[in-house]
Amino acid sequence: MTPHPPASPPPSFPTRVPARVPARVPLVTEPASILKSLLLARRNLLAILPDIATKQAVVSGKTGVRWHMLMDPDAIRRVLLEDLENYPKSDATKNILRPAIGESLFIAEGAHWRWQRRAAAPVFSHRNVTALAPVMSAAAEATLARISSAKGRPVEIYDEMVRATFEVITNVTLSGSDTFDAAEVHAAIDAYIAAAGKVSLFDILGLPQWLPRPGRLRGGGSLRLMKSIADSAVTARRSAPAKDTPDLLDLLLDGEDPETGRTMSTPELRDNLLTFIVAGHETTALTLSWALYLCAFDQDIQKRARDEAQTALQGRTATADDLGKLPLCRMIIDEALRLYPPAGILSRTAQVDDTLAGREVRAGDTVMIPIYALHRNALLWSEPDSFNPERFANRKAVERYAYLPFGDGPRICIGASFALQEAVIILATLLSQRVFKPVEGKTPEPVMILTLRPEGGVWLTSEPA
Prior knowledge:
The chain is an alpha+beta fold. It has a single domain (34-464), classed as CATH 1.10.630.10. The protein contains 17 helices and eleven strands. The strands form four sheets. Strands 1-2-7-4 form a four-stranded mixed β-sheet. Strands 3-11-8 form a three-stranded antiparallel β-sheet. Strands 5-6 form a two-stranded antiparallel ribbon. Helix 13 packs across helix 14 (299-313). The two termini are 35 Å apart. The relative contact order is 0.19.
């Protein structure tokens, strides 16, 4: 999930998107009023990023509070790795998400975060993630069948990818549970994000976080439903007999801090369960939706990826064993994550005075890593707005802190390998069997509220390969 910075850079008028460049956010070139900033941010948080953030290493300003945007890999390394304790997640980020996911891995800081991370890390080991691949393959096969049944009619791909990845996350998280209504949880998550996720004027002005944000109060009913369903699932599982193949909830129940032996309480399990469900389905659905949009945008790359997938799969559904034979499919996923990172902005609050990328930072300043701008920064990437998956053919040539689809440092996304495996399995399966083409007049617009979604949907047609 994507945090909001409590302060916003100055917006202005959009610039024109060049031809043959896939959909992008028109970044602002001139300052605007606080009210204009608020209106833009509430519709699309990325629309207030200054265009110079794609050309410079650091941008600073003041909108209520002082803020700094970092596009310098060395400075980002400092914030995410070397001085992690001095740059905790911003209060605005935590106050948006804490009502939904409590003091879970995504929110917690310090010792409380460290013990949860140690307890949960084995859940996402290579062995456990690989063991869950059959669920991903089954979802890929079901998605292929649904898309094929449209018989050439336009299909809203984002809806299909959300359905596929939600099936995966609920099956690998709560397999066999009859106390968990996936549709109810999904509706509750969407309702909470719609109510609570938008930037408030209080955030723009930098007002204290203890002042209630009206939108977040309106999400209370959805929150209660989400937590009630998850509590019931955890309680039921505690008394259920052990299964031959444990799912993620089983592994969390068995997990303990190797240093202290501490295990998670029911509220802690619930909050982490909801974190994995929220983060584990929408981010992957978004990645796949943008990847298929890009494949439809560039038919040559799509054909090459299809040839690769057909050679590797020979007409069957992709599995974990096929991942090493699908390098271009993986590069397409990597490039989709570069152009459309689900978490478009990370926000931190400086605890002490510091200097980052030659810029003075004071305690209390907001330090933002605008990943969307970082991934399109001309100092770091050649033709940054272009779709070129082969820029990832040599991963060692990609500067580590210039590419952060999953964050980095100790707080790197714990489910990154799970998400990448799922995305490649589904993408390769679909490309091996179908030719995807864009629908005229239906270009998606990248819009970020909490995550970078395709406004208007990803409408594609497909035909047998």
